């Protein structure tokens, strides 16, 4: 299987980005990452962000886009900014608790994302949803992840966060969800999680079975980008995301040998 490009979710190094975004982008490129996914734009204009990316040879592989910026009143403005940045993946990273309090709430949210997909498709953009842990804790006898993606159009990207999924369900195998919803995982968040510490781990040093995840991504997931995310307050963020990329390369190397 050919290796997929690897990006970094900049939320992983958000404190560093707030101090020196151009410097962070340069270091990320030097590590060997091929793209970045934004989680906020640090008051920069889209044209300036695009210039920074071009200067260091990075692509924009997504943005975590608040649901509040994708209303019928604001979505065109949001799309214009992202297209100028070179991004077509508008991934919602969080749904307010009051909107997902029960199964009916998740079903209503699925309808909303279907309508959003209709609005974005003519503009050449995709919407999608990124999980935390709550989507893998049953609500009314069903995992919210299944409630949501079982009722959304196939155009709605399933941005599975592997570590968050494992955190949410002790017996969850993230690869199972990639197989359950084939063709939906255009971008996937590679995050490792340690059951013993209950914290993020460097990729390939925790409990996520990345061999299975990579196999599923590259056989049934239709995945275009792997995106590393790391959130462990006890370690140096820049050092850790470099180690995570080394972990990704190790898994890719194993896959190439098989």
Describe the structure.
It is a single chain. With 258 residues, the chain is α/β, with parallel strands linked by helices. The chain has a single domain, classed as Divalent-metal-dependent TIM barrel enzymes (TIM Barrel), CATH 3.20.20. The chain is built from nine helices and ten strands. The strands form two sheets. It has an eight-stranded parallel sheet with strand order 6-5-4-3-2-1-10-7, covered by helices on one side. A two-stranded antiparallel sheet has the order 8-9. It starts with 5 loop residues before the first strand and ends with a helix. 43% of the residues are buried. The model has no long low-confidence stretch (mean pLDDT 96).
Keyword list:
258 residues, alpha/beta, TIM Barrel, two-stranded antiparallel sheet, 10 strands, 16% strand
Which spans have pLDDT < 50 for at least 5 consecutive residues?
Answer: none
CATH homologous superfamily grouping? Divalent-metal-dependent TIM barrel enzymes
Report, as a whole number of angstroms, the end-to-end distance: 10 Å
The tally of strands reads 10
Instruction: Kindly report the CATH topology.
Output: TIM Barrel
CATH architecture: Alpha-Beta Barrel
What percent of residues adopt helix (DSSP H or I)?
Answer: 40-55%
Give the strand line-up of the largest sheet.
Answer: 6-5-4-3-2-1-10-7
Question: For this structure, what is the CATH class?
Answer: Alpha Beta
Look at the structure and give the mean pLDDT: 96
The amount of beta strand, in percent, is: 15-25%
Query: Outline, from the CA principal axes?
Result: globular
Say what oligomer this is. Answer: single chain
* Biggest sheet architecture: 8 strands, parallel
Q: How many structural domains can be distinguished in the coordinates?
A: 1
């Amino acid at each position: 299987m050919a290796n997929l490009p690897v990006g970094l979710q900049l939320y992983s190094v958000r404190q560093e980005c707030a101090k020196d975004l151009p410097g962070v982008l340069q270091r990320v490129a030097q590590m060997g990452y091929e793209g970045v996914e934004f989680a906020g734009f640090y008051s920069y204009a889209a044209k300036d962000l695009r210039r920074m990316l071009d200067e260091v040879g990075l692509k924009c592989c997504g943005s975590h886009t608040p649901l509040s910026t994708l209303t019928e009143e604001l979505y065109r403005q949001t799309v214009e900014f992202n297209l100028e940045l070179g991004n077509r993946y508008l991934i919602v990273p969080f749904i307010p608790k009051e909107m997902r309090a029960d199964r009916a709430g998740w079903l209503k949210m699925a309808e909303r994302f279907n309508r959003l997909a209709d609005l974005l498709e003519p503009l050449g953009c995709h919407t999608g949803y990124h999980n935390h842990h709550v989507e893998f804790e049953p609500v009314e006898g069903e995992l919210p992840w299944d409630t949501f993606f079982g009722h959304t159009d196939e155009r709605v990207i399933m941005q599975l966060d592997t570590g968050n999924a494992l955190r949410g369900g002790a017996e969850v195998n993230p690869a199972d969800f990639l197989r359950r919803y084939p063709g939906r995982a255009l971008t996937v968040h590679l995050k490792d999680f340690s059951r013993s510490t209950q914290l993020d781990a460097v990729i390939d040093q925790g409990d996520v079975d990345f061999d299975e995840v990579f196999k599923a991504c590259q056989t049934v997931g239709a995945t275009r980008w792997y995106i590393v995310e790391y959130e462990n307050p006890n370690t140096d963020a820049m050092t850790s995301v470099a180690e995570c990329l080394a972990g990704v390369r190790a898994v890719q190397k194993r896959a190439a040998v098989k």
